Amino acid sequence: METLRLVLLFLHILGFAALIGGLLAQARQPEKTVNAAMRDGIGTAFLAGLLLVGVLEAGDTAVNHAKVAVKFAIGLLILVLVMANVRKERIPQGLWVGLLLLSVANVAVAVFWSPVHHA
Questions:
Q1: Cα–Cα nearest to 100, from 44, 16, 29
Q2: What are the helix and strand counts (H, E) for the chain?
Q3: How far apart are CA 2 and CA 94, in angstroms?
Q4: How crowded is residue 34: how many other Cβ atoms within 10 Å of its Cβ?
Q5: pLDDT of residue 115
Q6: Distances (CA, A) of 111 to 2, 13, 86, 115
Q7: Where are the beta strands (DSSP E) in 3-110?
Q8: Is the CB of residue 87 less than 8 Å from the CB of residue 36?
Q9: Contact 10/51 with Cβ under 8 angstroms?
Q10: Where are the domains of the chain?
Q11: What are the strands, taking DSSP E only, across 13-82?
Q12: Residue 9: how many CB atoms within 10 A of its CB?
């Protein structure tokens, strides 16, 4: 079970790396788009995150449900925004900035919020 948890965590991290990389690759471009790295990155991160929570719930570790809910909400919002704009020729600068901030915020929640609930 620990190996599965680590593989899912690895995929989750790679997904966010692809998403943020896909966003940052466009930083100097005047017109922004939803690229394949963003689309595949958030898809991978979201699915791996859901599966990761399932593995954690099945194990002996206490899961911080508030943290999971916040990460789920941010991830779902990113996923919806990316998928809603994937076929558009370009996206507004504000949406690009918003996606970048949401992505970084989701990583910050993962890093700075304690992984387990302390009762």
A1: 16
A2: 4, 0
A3: 40
A4: 24
A5: 63
A6: 20, 11, 28, 8
A7: none
A8: no
A9: no
A10: 2-112
A11: none
A12: 16
CB 23 within 8 A of CB 96: yes
Residue 41 one-letter amino acid: G
**91: DSSP letter:** B
Specify the DSSP element, H or E, that contains 111. Answer: helix 93-112
Residue ranges of the chain whose pLDDT lies below 50? none
Q: Cβ distance 39 to 86 under 8 Å?
A: yes
At 14-46, the pLDDT tens digits run 999 999 999 999 999 999 999 999 999 999 999
Q: What is the CA radius of gyration of the chain?
A: 15
The packing angle between helices 93-112 and 2-24, to 10°, is 150
Provide the whole-model pTM: 0.92
Q: Encoding tokens for residue 86?
A: 């994937």
pLDDT at 116: 55
C-alpha to C-alpha distance for 64 and 61, rounded to whole angstroms: 9
Q: How open is the CA angle 110-51-81, to the nearest 5 degrees?
A: 65
